[in-house]
Amino acid sequence: MISKATAEHYHWGEQCDGWHLLKRSDMSIIHERMPPLTKEVRHYHCQSRQFFLVLSGELTMELEGELHTLSAHQGIEIPPQAKHQAQNLSQHAVEFVVISHPTTRGDRIDIA
Q: Side-chain half-sphere of 12: how many Cα atoms within 13 Å?
């Protein structure tokens, strides 16, 4: 069994947290937390397909220039090659799960 309490923890971006729930080359599942008013670097993945599922709070996902606002229990698929950026534009933390197939490790191209 794995949970946020027992998973490998790491920090990323602007004071954001991640917990590796499943860390394999063919699939990755990460529980992430973004504090208010934070965002990741806009990027894309050459091979990886992702699915973001919001657990609590509100996540704004910019996907190919279009903004999508997701609340708890809503998700969005990010296909390979799609430029995207997860953002927390709210005044409250957002927590979500990111499923990636295959893993995004070594498959991320940041966009300036």
A: 15
How far apart (Å, rounded) are the C-alpha atoms in residues 112 and 110? 6
Residues 82, 7: Cα–Cα separation, whole Å: 29
d(CA 57, CA 89): 10
Give per-residue pLDDT as tens, 79-89. 999 999 999 99
pTM score over 0.85? yes
Residue 69's alpha-carbon distances to 9, 62, 74, 108, in angstroms, are 26, 9, 9, 23
**3 state SS of 51:** strand
Evaluate whether 55 touches 72 at the Cβ level (below 8 Å).
Answer: yes
